[in-house]
Specification:
556 residues, alpha+beta, Alpha-Beta Plaits, 4 domains, five-stranded antiparallel β-sheet, 42% helix, 19% strand, globular
Length: 556
Amino acid sequence: MSKHTLTLLDATGIQEYIFGSNQLAQNIGASELVERVTTQWLVDSLKALGLSTNLQWSSEKGVEYSNKKVPQVYVEVIYAGGGNAVLLFAPGQDAQAFLRHHTRRVLVGARGLQILAVSQVFEWDEQAGTGETFVDVLDQLRKKIFIRKMSRPASTPMPGLAITTACAYTGLPAVGVNTDPNIVGTEIATRMKRLKEEQPISGEVADKLRAEPPAKNRLHELLKQVREKGYEFVYDFDQFGDKGESSYIAVVHTDGNGMGKRFDALAAQYKTAGYNRDYIEAIRALSDSIRKRAEKALNETVNYLLDGLEKEEITIKPLKRDGTPLLPFRPIVFGGDDVTFVCDGRLGVMLAAKYLQAFTDGNLADGAPVYARAGVAVVKTHFPFSRAYGLSEDLAFSAKQAIAGLKLEGDSGATVMDWHFSTTGVIRSLEAIRKQDYMSRSAVSMLMRPIRIDAHAGQWRSWENFQSVMKEFRGKEWAEKRNKVKDLQNALRGGSQDVSLFMKNYRIKGLPDIPAQPAMKTNGWQIEAGEDVACGYFDTLEAIDFVAVKAKKVAL
């Protein structure tokens, strides 16, 4: 038997590290550092130690795996990216030497980011079908890393002495100012000088800002059509929206449904000695197929947006910088099933739906279909970004909880989305908001959402129905009749009887049709046993001002 070493790397505290700042350039740079810690820097560390590997990385193609495996290479990377990596060291190779070198690189180049590592030596004899199974060893490492996460000492950075200057963003001791090219790089320093925004910054902020330009370049490599169409990406939240027209951004968080269970299913399939190599190939293939699907979905979402802007069907006039229009869309976290992007507030619901449709189109490497969920938080531009992201996560969780109720007989899953429009700066929990603002006078929820994005004829809570109703409300009978719309909203709050009276007063024959719920057309509500149980129109009425598409179309 031969003794191999399996090593697991895991960046922890990622959400706080990426989304803790209200400066978009820092969010972008932090996300780039998290990605590179387990991709580009991983490759660099292996090369620096002379360790051959199967992993390649480039800004153009990202992560790529060769067909080489141990013992053809000293280190075989099982999968890498998104702050996680699993490495298999051939017999005789020193995993600890690699960890010392790599973690030192992270400490120096990504200050404030915490990375944990565990290793285990195990015996593997693939030909004889004996020895320890890869499944069991990896499971043991995951348990160890979890324990280490729970037991690691709390970070208590020293805020500095009275004579030190504090960072304008973190309160930690400043290492310089953001206009110094030696600290933040030439591009950021030049930008800050031009904007006259010189600020003292800590080492952590400096690292994040320095990573923003390469993050932009990597994104342009992935989404080449942006520059081909003459656009650039934004680097500031104020660059979203039309001046004097809209001051909202949408924070969109998406996640795959049941991804952990899919990897667990592979583990159960290969949990026998002699199948180590098959298991490695299977989890790498599944991981890589998720990454490629996410990249494809981002490209399709951007194409959808660019096409709408070009045809002037999307009614947004992008801001310009030095004569170049800025695309009102910016991915922050991408490359896996967990994706977060920001965009103009009037595009959030549309682009989230488009992304989900593209991501769930077809099967993954394990041969099964993929489903996903999304939360869309539309907030004012200067709303605390960490809270906006937290709200988008809460909405994605709300969507997850609704999956069981939105599935119909024969469904293996459902792709679901939830959203919220925050028109004030008041910070409350999602549960409190919905209990206070979205209940009828008889204490019944007026929400149609969360809704299914994947088409299903038998489910009325669907993206298809939402778009159809929206199109009707933006038509000739309702367009620009604000009092009529507001009166209908108030009537919906009162219940089905108030809606019937509203329709009589306005001489309306029927509300927009909702298949599978014909009664809603006459009174706005689904009624069971004489009681209002579900409302079909409040969501669309609320969303009218947050859909930047010409009235004749809702979807492109």
